[in-house]
Amino acid sequence: MSLKIVMKVFFWQKINLNNLKEENAGLAVWQLLLIIVFAGIVSYLILPQFIQRQNNQVTRRVATENLILFAKENSLTPLECEGEDNNNDGWIQCRAEDTNQEKINLQCAYDQRHSSCKLNKN
């Protein structure tokens, strides 16, 4: 008699465990899909901003190096360069000072098309 009771209890526990596994498996797939969708949305929103920020830092660094070289050749004091190329022509707005402490607006290159600075005509 006790063996029959043990067998029934074992059988019902086995059925309950199978039901739990099936429910958890469905929930795990649903959670996985939700995570994938959420990660895709976050990647779509954040990655372009991160890449653009990295490009701005590289652009500013290269233009600043060109500004320093140009300033040494022309007895100027380099000040600063912007980080964005507004019209995508390969030149960034930079500023320098001459020996009279007057600020000079320059355009300095950041890509391989040009390798120096020039006076800003604006």
Question: Which blocks of ≥5 consecutive residues have pLDDT under 50?
Answer: none
| Gyration radius, rounded | 33 Å
Query: How many E-type strands?
Result: 4
User: How many helices in DSSP terms?
Assistant: 1
Averaged pLDDT:
78
Q: What is the global morphology?
A: rod-shaped
Helix content: 55-70%
Query: Strand pairing plus helix content: what structural class?
Result: alpha+beta
In the sheet with the most strands, the strands line up as 1-2-3-4
The end-to-end span amounts to: 101 Å
Order of helices and strands: HEEEE
Percent range for β-strand residues = 15-25%
By oligomeric state, this entry counts as single chain
Main beta-sheet annotation: 4 strands, antiparallel
Write the layout of secondary structure elements.
Elements: H1 2-73, E1 77-81, E2 91-97, E3 103-109, E4 117-119
Antiparallel strand pairs: 1-2, 2-3, 3-4
Can you walk me through this structure?
- The chain has one helix at residues 2-73, and strands at residues 77-81, 91-97, 103-109, 117-119.
- It has 122 residues and is α+β, with helices and mostly antiparallel strands.
- The protein has one domain.
- The chain has a four-stranded antiparallel sheet with strand order 1-2-3-4, covered by helices on one side.
- The longest helix has 72 residues, at 2-73.
- The chain is rod-shaped and about 105 Å long.
- The model has no long low-confidence stretch (mean pLDDT 78).
- The chain crosses the membrane at residues 27-47.
- Keywords: Membrane, Transmembrane, Transmembrane helix.
